[in-house]
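Here is my example:
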Amino acid sequence: MKYTEYTYLYPPRPRNAIQSSDLDFWDNGNLLAQCKMNGSNATIYTNGDKVIVMNRHNQRLTNFQINEAEIKAMYRGDGSWMVINGEYMNKSKSDENRQVFNHKFVIFDILVLDNDYLVGSTFEQRVLLLDELYGKVPCEKDYLWKISDNIYRVKSYSRDFLELYNSLVEIDMIEGLVLKRRGAKLERGNTENNNTKSQIKCRKKCNSYRY
């Protein structure tokens, strides 16, 4: 499906939640796990010239502080549209070293590349596509790949979900895990409810969360 001009796309997001005690049940080889970062869901639309940053409610993301030059360096293409979904870290949460990790963008999915809206592609295919585009550059954080000073990418894990969850939830800026079905095909993002059935979230306990 072609994507030749800016149009808002609702990003894939989990709606259903599970408890950590259920993680072993879902650790069956059919899903990939990614850490759930505690920021604001954001989607970056760029053709290498224009840069548009939107939140999950079809509104401009305010107070976005990564400069356009770094976004354009992240761009892969030749004037065609690219749409990347991730988490903008803007809540002054801390990493494992108790250092604030703020105004960083952490990628977890790609929706458009070379004017091609990746409808019908599986989640696993899109993870592999991100691997091809950005490689796997280690950084000081075991759960992230590094792209640039302020742009990162979450790692994807295929097993040992409970062990992974227990190792990550002590970190302030990580809410838990999102489990995504490997073979789930991307649907058109016409509404907030599209692409919710193939993902589940597992959050650490916090009185402020509403499942």
